[in-house]
Amino acid sequence: MLGQFSPVEPYSALSTPPPWSPAHLLQPFRFRSRTEPIDWRRLSALDVERVERDMDVDVLQNFITTVTFCAVEGERCPNCRGPADPSLIKLLRMSQLSTEYLLHCQDLLSSQLSGLEERLQAALALVQRGEEQRAELEKNLQEAKQENRRRKKLIATQQLLLQASANNYHK
């Protein structure tokens, strides 16, 4: 996908594709059939202004399947029983298709986010292990430097002793 980050490690043919790649989409997007019945009583009891004012997402979630997948063709006005306006039906159908596609995108993005979160956790664990190894190597380096200083002092002391004993021997 354009604009996406490339993976740090290349994927082999045997590994699973990254969650943001087109290969991750096993099933191509298709619109579902509209078979949900319209619950006119429940719909007429709904206060849309209150939902909008209170930003009641729970009510939206409860109605999303019904609204998105209800069969609107052949619906009649519940009051006069006359046919619904074709332009209004067309508007509702386009809204249904848009909502269904957005639900698909939401699921896809959620799946991608889960995959990326897993990769992030793995990368953070790798960084943590690297930091631990770096700290251990730094500790070993400091110990080696101290041992090196100690041995240099020991060698210098031994050289002084050897020179002193050699000078005493020649006198």
TrEMBL record:
GO cellular component, one term: cytoplasm
Domain Cilium assembly protein DZIP1 N-terminal: 29-149
Pfam families: Dzip-like_N (PF13815)
Keywords (A to Z) from UniProt: Coiled coil
Coiled-coil regions listed: 113-157
InterPro entries, alphabetized: DZIP1_N (IPR032714), DZIP_RILPL (IPR051241)
GO molecular function: zinc ion binding
Membrane spanning residue stretches: none
UniProt superkingdom: Eukaryota
PANTHER family per record: CILIUM ASSEMBLY PROTEIN DZIP1L, ZINC FINGER PROTEIN DZIP1
Name of the featured protein: Cilium assembly protein DZIP1 N-terminal domain-containing protein
Organism the protein comes from: Cirrhinus mrigala
Organism taxonomic ancestry: Eukaryota, Metazoa, Chordata, Craniata, Vertebrata
